[in-house]
Amino acid sequence: MKKTVTFGMLAIALVTGSVLAQTMLPKLPVKATYRVGFAQTESNNPWRLAQTKSMQDEAKKLGYQLVYTDAAGSTAKQVADVRSMIAQKVDAIFLSPREDKPLAPVVAEARKAGIPVILVDRNIDPALSKAGTDYVTFIGSDFIKEGQRVADWLVKNANGKMNIIELEGTTGASPANDRRKGFDDVIAKNPKFKIVASQTGDFARDKGRQVAETLLQAHPEANVIYAHNDEMAIGAVSAIKAAGKVPGKDILVLSIDGGKEAVQMVVDGTINYVVECNPRFGPQAFATLKDYAAGKKLPAKIINADRDYTPESAKAGLAGAY
């Protein structure tokens, strides 16, 4: 059973049917204020900047001290950042793992040090680390469903455009893994559609542009680009124009995130469809922390309820985009 709760601009679908025992996790005493770590993966795009601001704003509102680190796109640095927070003996850690495997050991180190960890936005490989045992819970979107929603829209609105280039996110990151799986699974059930090329653009605008340019040259038959995030989609729009084609018409462009720049491009017709992945985590993240300290039982996952932006809805939704 699901229950939807709204925290400011972020709607949360609580998965109420899978409450955790939480018997192996460190206790968090109820206090008036906390010193909390937030290990961010990078700050090179609007989504991450919006997420960080939301976390900082909520900490300030509550009077908590936020120990913030930026891994600058380096998994090794993020591991070191979390270890530094453990050494500083913060009360708890919010972690957005850059990759789903290398961060598992430091999550275990935090637990052994008596520091509870809450995962935000990105998850850790469940074979290596489990909610309720190694970390408290995961807060974020259903990345598989995001990919499915993009593919479902394409199947219904392709108008004969069926040769797809997929620009993948960072290799090993849970959003990239799941957004690929969700999309690819739907496409596999629709044999008229074909993924002609798939390559990582590392969730970055310029790399997405470069990869799109290369793949469009190698596959001139491509008439759809599915990007795992807005930054790569915006880069792909530039690549399409450089190829002498019209983005949104000659080549459909599909994306996930819902930043204001990308939503405006849906309004303008250069991007065709965007599934939102709301970055405003602050209110829900800190509410979850307080619930945990109060001894409330939490689900393994707290899933964001995200909207989408179509040519019909983008103009009305633009004001609410991050």
Keywords:
14 strands; 10 helices; Rossmann fold; single chain; eight-stranded mixed β-sheet; 21% strand; 38% helix
User: Beta-sheet strand percentage?
Assistant: 15-25%
Work out the helicity level: 25-40%
In the sheet with the most strands, the strands line up as 1-2-13-7-6-5-3-4
Question: What is the quaternary state of this protein?
Answer: single chain
Return the CATH architecture of the largest domain.
3-Layer(aba) Sandwich
CATH superfamily of the largest domain: Response regulator
Q: Strand pairing plus helix content: what structural class? A: alpha/beta
Which spans of ≥5 residues are poorly predicted at pLDDT below 50? 1-22
Q: Kindly report how far apart the N and C termini lie.
A: 29 Å
The number of helical elements comes to 10
Mean residue pLDDT: 93
Total separate domains: 2
Notes on the protein architecture:
This protein has 322 residues and is α/β, with parallel strands linked by helices. It folds into 2 domains: 2-140 and 278-306, Response regulator (Rossmann fold, 3-Layer(aba) Sandwich), CATH 3.40.50; 143-277, Response regulator (Rossmann fold), CATH 3.40.50.2300. Helix content is 38%, strand content 21%. The chain contains 10 helices and 14 strands. The chain has an 8-stranded mixed β-sheet, with helices on both faces. It has a 6-stranded mixed β-sheet with strand order 9-8-10-11-12-14, sandwiched between helices. Helix 1 packs across helix 9 and helix 6 crosses helix 7 (230-242). The model is unreliable at 1-22 (pLDDT under 50). Belongs to the bacterial solute-binding protein 2 family. Residues 1-21 form the signal peptide. Pfam families: Peripla_BP_4 (PF13407).
